[in-house]
Amino acid sequence: MTESPRHHWTVKQVVELFALPFNDLMFQAQTVHRANFDPNQVQVSTLMSIKTGACAEDCKYCPQSGHYHTDVERQRLLEVEKVLQEAAQAKDKGASRFCMGAAWSNPKERDMPYLVQMVEGVKEMGLETCMTLGKLTVEQAEVLGQAGLDYYNHNLDTSPEYYGEIITTRTYQDRLDTLSHVRSAGMKVCAGGIVGMGESRQDRAGLLVQLANLPMQPESVPINMLVKVKGTPLDQVDDLDPFEFIRSIAVARILMPASYVRLSAGREKMNDQMQALAFLAGANSIFYGDKLLTTPNPETSDDHRLFNTLGIKVEQREEASDEAHEQVLMSAVVESQQDKMFYEAN
Ligand code: SF4
């Protein structure tokens, strides 16, 4: 790492960054990226929904909110064994981090022992662990931290100014408090937001300023493109210009030079060229798997094919063997090419 991140960005400065000519912005982002990371490496995680639907919160983008009628099938907290089986499969497919998501306002005390067993079991496989469970108390954060949870995901979603348009059941300050409890418990923070929810550029800048100016910048910053789901209040919102999405990634990279910027939800709708631009803008993390909680995600074999085309390597955890991983990557590429041949033969 060559420079310490700034923690006093203003919205005005960040709006100016957004407004740079596209090539200048990309050059700046790529320069910052290269000073801090291997530009041809991407970290991959797998995300599993461990409890689905019927959430008490009213996040207007979310098909899992109990406030809206969507096609999401409700599912209680899964058994520990089932979660560990999925984690083992994710590891076989090359993921280095396993993220477990529950559609809750907050975990209940009765759930905590199961969550602890999940964290301990996934850690034993040599995977990094991440959870997203909603609001946490100081005590719950400590219990999860002691169990060995590496990352906690809790997004700020949007700017403080636009927030009230999107969620009314939880405050912005609630979110900041949870992030602070996670930090105090010694865990790493994964926090980002969603663009394309009808917010302005000023709001996108406002979100990134909030994240960049946290006392310690998040280690992981997911930038999601809204996935419009029928039945949610945002299912008819106007599409965001794809270049504005790429600009958001680039600005996140410049503001948070040492963070992993994750190309997250919405990737299924992005073609190869757009994903390549996102990597060029400084995204260096993705989710593998055909589903992101409840919304579609590209097939793992498509990701491997794209990585192969772009010369991108999957980031390894230290204890993972390069050779074993390379084998997984190559077999997936071959599988994907065979799929294509079969498709073309039809
Ligand atoms: S808290 Fe999470 S699961 Fe619940 S409605 Fe909001 S985004 Fe969806």
Automatic annotation (TrEMBL):
Catalytically driven reaction(s): (4R,5S)-dethiobiotin + (sulfur carrier)-SH + 2 reduced [2Fe-2S]-[ferredoxin] + 2 S-adenosyl-L-methionine = (sulfur carrier)-H + biotin + 2 5'-deoxyadenosine + 2 L-methionine + 2 oxidized [2Fe-2S]-[ferredoxin]
UniProt keyword annotation of Transferase present: yes
Family, per entry: Belongs to the radical SAM superfamily. Biotin synthase family.
Positions bound to [2Fe-2S] cluster: 99, 130, 190, 262
PANTHER family: BIOTIN SYNTHASE, BIOTIN SYNTHASE, MITOCHONDRIAL
UniProt source species: Corallincola holothuriorum
Gene Ontology MF term list: 2 iron, 2 sulfur cluster binding; 4 iron, 4 sulfur cluster binding; biotin synthase activity; iron ion binding
Pathway assigned in UniProt: Cofactor biosynthesis; biotin biosynthesis; biotin from 7,8-diaminononanoate: step 2/2
Keywords attached to this entry: 2Fe-2S, 4Fe-4S, Biotin biosynthesis, Iron, Iron-sulfur, Metal-binding, S-adenosyl-L-methionine, Transferase
Radical SAM core domain span: 40-264
HAMAP family with a match to the protein in the record: BioB
Keyword check for Nucleus: no
Protein known as: Biotin synthase
EC number in record: 2.8.1.6
Quaternary structure (record): Homodimer.
Entry's Gene Ontology BP terms: biotin biosynthetic process
